[in-house]
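Task: sequence in, structure out. Protein: GTP-binding protein 8.
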Amino acid sequence: MICLLPSRGLLPGTQLCSVPRQRLHKLASLQNVRMLRPKKVQSLLYPFSQMEPYLDRSVDRSQFQHFHPSVEDMMKAETLFLSSPSHKIDYRISAERLDHVPVLKPPEVCFIGRSNVGKSSLIRALFSLTPEVEVRVSKTPGHTKKMNFFQVGRAFTIVDMPGYGHRSPKDFVDMVEPYLFTRENLVRTFLLVDGSVGLQQADLIAMEMCEEIRRPYVMVLTKIDKPGNGTLLRNLMSLQDTVRRNTTSCFPQPLLISSLNFCGIYLLRCFIAHVTGSISLTDTSLS
Ligand SMILES: Nc1nc2c(ncn2[C@@H]2O[C@H](COP(=O)(O)OP(=O)(O)OP(=O)(O)O)[C@@H](O)[C@H]2O)c(=O)[nH]1
Ligand SMILES: [Mg+2]
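Result:
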């Protein structure tokens, strides 16, 4: 691999490399996914479909399908995650204090959650069609220490946040909380919960904070490849119950994601494209 390092304007955490096309993960693009077995396609595009057979018949399934985009809508959204000369996807800047945060016009979405929950991995999977934008991930909790801004053309900005639970709450309270309260162009916060362990006390505190901020946020269950179906279903139902009982600003449908096997990544790309106003959906996508 030829690396063009060091590159001007790049901070630690991001490298600009010339990556041969074949290094793209085979599941990065819907084009490839659509060639797989229909059952596999279904579970990658609509991860909730894996859970359905295990649900009690009395459970109302519509609450898990408020956002149910067509494959065509997902294809439209995917084009936004492809970098081109007229639509550059790139790391923009890192900020370790609120006054370092750049003023940017495009709508913004950010990812918060406990350290190690998989925030950076998820953003890396979203950008898997543009592997030259490197998002660093680590087994060690507390790896991401700054807010990292990634610009997706003029369409939107994605922000990777330091986690809470490790070296926090100080970092989080000093930097992330004021950002969430004051950022004018922030259109959605994604609050990640580890799907293999379920809701923890720290997650409940973060949900309370999001409720206090009163801006729209969405729960995301990560690492869904790790637990067995029983554990995952239990964690999903408990999260769903908490959302229903205790929240008013939270989107009613938790999104299910595995950054390892790309399950749910296409749906999340479409959700981001939708909430940032970058695509218009066909009528059937939202209920
Ligand atoms: N099995 C599995 N492991 C994952 C997944 N996503 C992330 N991981 C692993 O979880 C660990 C933490 O991932 P990160 O993406 O760095 O987590 P983070 O939330 O950004 O962590 P901080 O930056 O420390 O807050 C890494 O070892 C990842 O490989 C997933 O979908 N499935
Ligand atoms: Mg991180």
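Residues 1-22 have pLDDT under 50 and may be disordered.
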